[in-house]
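Cross-posting from the modeling subforum.

Setting up a comparison between two proteins and wanted a second pair of eyes on the formatting. Protein 1 (sequence, then structure tokens):
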Amino acid sequence: MSKLKRIIFLIMAFMCLFQFIPSANAATHGDDFETFMTRIRKEFRKKPNIDDALKLFNDNTGAFSDIDYKRNDMTNWPPLKHLDRLGSFVAAYTNESSNHYGDEILYERIVKGLQYWQDADPNCKNWWFNQIAEPQALGVILIQMRSGKKHVPQTLEEAILERMRNEGGDPAKWTGANCTDICLHWIYRSCLQRNEADLQKAMQLVFDPIRYTTKEGFQNDNSFFQHGTQLYIGGYGDEILKGVTQVAMYALGTKYALSDEKVQIVSKFMRETYYPTIRGKYMLYDVMGRSMSRRNILDKSSKKLFARRMIQLDPKHADEFKQIVARLSGKEEPSYGISPRHTHYFRGDYTLHVRPGYIFDVRMVSDRTSRVEYGNAENLKTYFVSDGCNNIVKKGDEYYNIFPVWNWTRIPGTTAPQMNPVPLAQKDWQQPGTSKFAGGVSDSIYGASAYAYDDLWAGINTHARKSWFFFDDEIVCLGAGITSDNSSPIMTTLNQRLANAGTSFAVVENDGKVKNEPKSITSSSVKAVQYDGVGYVFPNGGNVVAELKKQEGSWYEINHAQPKGNVSKKVFTVALDHGVKPSDATYSYIVVPESGEASTLANYADGRVAILNNTSELQAVQQKKLGIWQMVFYSAGTYKDKNITVEADKPCAVMVRLMADGSVKLHVADLAQKQQQINVGVKLKGAIKKQVNTLCDFTNTGVYAGATKAFKLK
């Protein structure tokens, strides 16, 4: 071969080679579509047992014999089982390790089942199933079938894709978790149709909710709202985390990858809000919205999946997410990796106090936020949950599935008339609260929260000034101005939880003697009560009611999508009875989550905490060992004793702390969020001889009107 011929041959060879190497631009779209679908298949890959479902399948019609396809229930829509089962059929058909892999008969059943769904056209009166659940399920089925030995016939696949487009809704018209959920099936459909325009739109919109907003979505205080101004850390919080982390994993390393800025918003919410509301594997009930009335809903062990995704998405915080996974999987104790944290979510009217040994929270509602909802015939007895309720959890399962037997007028932390039936709020969705003074002051480790409870709805007619003062070993709870003309007894409930630890509770009498009580007591001579290691101390007495008894009810009574059968559980309750039509009554109690021996509770407050004032104008507490004074001024006023003087010219919450180095720190919050100037004067024995006056300027603070301002006085 001549030299010229060799050169020509080499040129031709190289030209042929490059014909099979697509350019970067030409390959991008195809690679992204296929990358997405490969990752989607991997996520939904499973090896299900389909034997029982096969027995119910009608080969002639393509339907399942036990499903009523005309049902249109608002929750737990029965026809959706059809797609769930077809999804399992598809998983078995496409999994090489399954006995049903590539089975021709199973293939025919899948096609028959999809055709039946198309022809029967089931429809639910709850839009969520039509626009989210159904098209998501169909999209996953079609993507998985693209990897099978035989695909869904083209005509049928196109019809299903058209159904998804027509009935699946437009994500641009929705916000928060709903937007993300609709985007998911847009992504599925776009990949199947290789529709770049729709994929780009879906990818932009699916990540659009990852920003701080004053509407539904992530709030500037790191909480999350859905259905208007309703706190929804769980429930819809679950949904948005599921969606955004799921899609972010699909897009990892592609041109659609989630930006680092948005990764950090998601990461911060998960690490500092979402997962801190989970003790062990159980989520606090009051951040769940109406879903708290569903069986097993507090078990969030499956949500470790989100943290596992974040290990890859946010490697700089991988160790924290690994700790989260270990707690939720039960491989480590609930205390594992937990550091002290105190947060008041000034947008959400919510306070979260976290310690390695326990969690204590406060759920409030103001005229700026919405009550916990009861829509779709769910959560039908939830009324008082919004009014200063508390979770007190150490193991995490203290309230797990207690709700059918709960006395819903004795919600932990609330002051409420013992009415039967429990009233419904005026609206099932987006019902605002009535309090104009609700919030908290915080330095991120300690804090105080307050709630001016005023409720005239449905004859409740009850008023109280309620506050909580948070330290390391105890939470001091004060109530004042308790007044009501309701004919039912008014009670403040300290706790109502499952009796899963012991057959009796300890009672510390005024003389310091400790006795074990297996049933109940009603007494005004009780110094403290202890159950499951949690102490409830009454430094100023009160008419104490404590019970350990079986309570009955049904899930259906609180959620019409749940079973009607009777449920019986043993429950521990401790409360203070203020009697009928109290006028300016008060209460004071100290919760000691890790109390040790019951006998130590007799004089718990001595030398540790002091209740300085408890009136409807001012509530104040001193933690002596920490050098902390916390005060809630419901009106302008002055507190003065031999050690400290604090003066405020407007309602506010104040925290003064004498540090170990002799410096003095002041924290102030405007609980009414009026965006005003508040003048606070402080004089402190041994540290500030002459009163220091501080102008706390909250004007023009906008979305941060309820946030705490910090000052160094010395």
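Protein 2 (same layout):
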Amino acid sequence: MAESPNGRKGLVEPTELVAWLREHLPATGRLVSDSRRVGKGDAFFALHGRRQDGSTFIAQAVQQGAAAVVVAIPAQACQAEDAAEGDVAQAEHAACGNFDYFKNLPTLPAGIQVPVCYVPCLGTQLGALADEYYDHPSQVLDVVAVTGTNGKTSTTHWIAQGVNDRLARAGEAQAVDANTPSRPAAGASTQRPAEFAGLVIALDGDADAAMQPARGRGVVIGTNGVGTPGALEYIGLTTPDPLTLQTLFQRFRADTEAPVGVVAMEASSIGLVQGRMQGTCIHTAVFTNLTRDHLDYHGSMQAYGAAKVGLFSWPTLQAAVVNLGDPLATEIIEVLHRHPAAPRIIGYWVNNAHGAPQAGQADAAFQAMDDDARARLRRFYELAMRCDEVLELALDRDSGQHVLMMFPGSVVKTLLQLPEAGADPVALASGEGAVHARQQRLQAMFRNVATLRLNVLGRFNMENALAAAGAWRSLGWNFPAIVEGLHQLHPVPGRMEIVGLPAAHVSGECEAAPAAAISSIACPLVVVDYAHTPDALTNVLTALRDIASQRGGQLCCVFGAGGNRDRGKRPEMARAVEAVADRVVVTSDNPRDEDPAQIIADVCQGLSQPAWRTEADRRVAIGAAIAQAAPADVVLIAGKGRETTQEIAGVFHPFSDPEIAAQALVSHWAVDTREVPHA
């Protein structure tokens, strides 16, 4: 064994590290890479990051109680001379047989009296090592990993909310006399309304089957933090580093007072590429959508998409939930069909192409579609046939209600009676009487259809709700339970969050509040949302455009772009906002190390007309937009959601969009927001 620079512990190969850690740590010792989070008995991992060298924090970690230190030898320190130029992986592999590791490594601080080891070629093995050290904690949890450009936070929150609401209902049911008949969910019906008889509904033999027993409460890991929705601990990264992630799984497994059954976590593209989730036993993978983001890291949309697709090759996967309305779904389903474990594929789709045709009128509705709508429907049919199950939400624009359908993918092929694999589903479906006739022959078998009214704003949020429903289905929920779960959804903080509502609405207890707030014109309707990509801005603004029209007012958008991120999307964000909003306010987001003025200039390059206002001070920009709005107007504050800080020149300053907006409403409109909980 080679000697380290301080002469205490020397080289430890990755395969030996777990045994070394167990030798030098107490049973309660954790694995930590952030020196600020080190506690007594923990092991501090000094990693060499892109911006910081963890070895500079060894003294701090030891002072805080670290029982051992692991120094990861950076790749550049252990590259073999004969390795292929530019092939880092090969260089690291070759270096693992070379014991001259300690060249150019930093000298340990004087007085370090805890065991220290050096580990070469650690890299993406961290997750697997932490998983082994903690004895595979994720294997006893149902981990649902959600990936996509937009919708990850809302989807994960709703997955966990649904699990917890179900547990609460189960607890209430235990107190009810067993002879008392259960009552259906308010506002939900499992009877097929006659006006939807012309739609493909569903057939499923287990509609009334008992669900799998709940294993425990639902928690989230993601942008807003870690823990039970409504009581989150902020950790800084959408997908935590491998050590933190496995430590969280261990914490959840060890919680005997409030056992955890389901972990809904956001799987970012960067986290996937960096191997942060390695070692995790993922039960279900969920895909929401793919639009432009993070090209500063990935370089191209192809590489960005490939990172998302990689999640669906996960070896432990038992189920996958896929948005059939996104073009990337085709590639994902191809990958899933090649998966050796044959995961159950659950597709979902929000269909508002033909509204709610009356029985016998479906053919005319199909014929009336434009080419784009036909292409989307064609892709849906083709992909649905390759799914084990499909969840479809049809929108009834007249009633404001939605029709939820669940059916096996095989039903689509049976319904359309495709003569051959290459047949055009839309062409067949558009034939005289084709759809209705085939539906009539199967009508006796149809089940799993319900009407409901979702307490969410925007089509994109309906897609997120349907993604959560698909995850519930993958966990064994039957159709009535899914309907009940969707009916109980309540808003996610920082996602289409209305500022100025009473606390009851924010907690999901007051269903009348959203309608009241939207219809009231006593003051501007102020909405906070995390949207920070061109597509997300378009989705949110389009939903709010309709509300502004209903109120008889204009739509104002306050937004900026983050520093040290994809510069190319900045003018695209401006174009997306200008296309929908009446007034554009360009401000600072998280400038990080960049000059806010330059970021604003980059954004404004995408505007065809000068912005209504540009203001680097985000607080001033928000206040001005609200103060100068008319009572009927809608003001969207986009980009930061429920973030509690603003990063300027590397310094984190306390900042909350909902708090600033609430203060502006108080100052300029005398709106009482004392009951509104803010971050």
